[in-house]
Amino acid sequence: MLVLGIETSCDETAAAVVEETGDPQRPWRVRSNVVASQIDVHRKWGGVVPELSARQHVRDICGVVDRALADAGVESFDAIAVTQGPGLMGSLLVGLSFAKALAWARSVPLVPVHHLAGHIESLVLDGGEMPLPAIVLVVSGGHTSLYRIEAIGKYEILGRTRDDAAGEAFDKVAKLLGLGYPGGPAIDLVSQHGDDRAVSLPKTKLTHADRNAPHLPGHRDFSFSGLKTSVLRYVAARREERGLGPDDPLPRQHISDVAASFQRVVAETLLDRLFDAARFYSARSVGIAGGVSANSRLRELAVIRGASSGLPVFIPRLSLSTDNAAMIAAAGLRRYRAGVVGELDVEADPALTL
Ligand code: KG4
Ligand code: ZN
């Protein structure tokens, strides 16, 4: 069975063809994976502009889908999986409307997919089925969510961010360090020349009001706005010391040191929570998905912690970490096999819950 996946929830127009293999350990194979990034459209605004994003999706969607089919060497497919939400309304509508029209024209079923279910599926796409129960962290520009997975397709939320998502924190800190957009890759790059212990920054760990209730909702929540403010204060203080104005850049080494320290604190905060939950729930594996899982320091530290705790760590390859449609096609295949097919009047939902 071949599934065409379509993803337009934010600033990437993506299409992919994924094939069912029949191998229970590695159920899917990526036949093609095409992503048209809108980075250049949004760069000068310093972040994603929703209206521009929707308009660019309209321009790119036909070419991206054509290319995904050509790369896969196929003209037909057996189902279409499409991101229904969450995301930007105008952007979601482009992919969903296109998918509905194509499903109708080709008389194939349409399977609506939750964007984060797609990110979680990227772990299986690359690493094969995860030993369950698993604890999975989804860290992206819009989400920082920790899930317990007892059975495939059943996700129990253990914690989420109460303010900024981890990727959003990367983007905002990069902006205040003058590193531009998108912030995550920029911080990752300059951090390679920095000392990650140079700047002391706080690690925030929110718990349930009853600190002895690790099983209750909210006990493993995240918060990154305090960390961002600490970086802001640190940068302002260094500027003042040097008599620099608010728009004058700090010396390069300073920027690298702050970026590396910030990156270490984010990575440690995420991994502390992930491995603590894995221990508490006796998980047999852990996973990290979403755009921030592309972070090189987070990947390195995750592998080290996995080795010391004896747990297999699932992280997708870089091209499947950030938004793509292969993960949507794979999640759609799983849903389709579970009997889920959407009607052609299914609506985009910017706040869809998992
Ligand atoms: O999953 P994704 O592509 O889109 C959303 O669903 O949000 O994630 C995008 C986020 C952005 O905030 C971006 O800065 C961050 O992932 N990101 C990174 C890296 N690459 C992308 N963050 C840290 N380090 C990276 N190397
Ligand atoms: Zn995403």
Can you tell me about this structure?
The protein has 354 residues and is an alpha/beta fold. It is built from eleven helices and ten strands. The protein has helices at 39-42, 50-72, 89-106, 115-127, 166-176, 183-191, 225-241, 252-280, 296-309, 318-321, 326-337, and strands spanning 2-7, 12-20, 28-37, 79-85, 110-114, 134-139, 144-151, 154-160, 285-289, 313-314. Strand 6 (134-139) and strand 7 form a beta hairpin. The protein is globular, with a radius of gyration of 21 Å. The protein starts with a strand and ends in a 17-residue tail after the last helix. The site of zinc ion has 6 residues, from helix 4.
Strand content: 15-25%
Distance between the first and last residues' Cα: 25 Å
What is the CATH architecture assignment of the largest domain?
2-Layer Sandwich
Rg over CA atoms, rounded to whole Å, is 21 Å
The CATH homology group name of the largest domain: ATPase, nucleotide binding domain
Shape: globular
Fill in the CATH topology of the largest domain: Nucleotidyltransferase, domain 5
**Strands ordered across the widest β-sheet:** 3-2-1-4-5
Bound molecules: 5'-O-[(R)-(carboxyoxy)(hydroxy)phosphoryl]adenosine, zinc ion
As for the number of domains, it is 2
What structural class do the secondary elements suggest? Answer: alpha/beta
The number of helical elements comes to 11
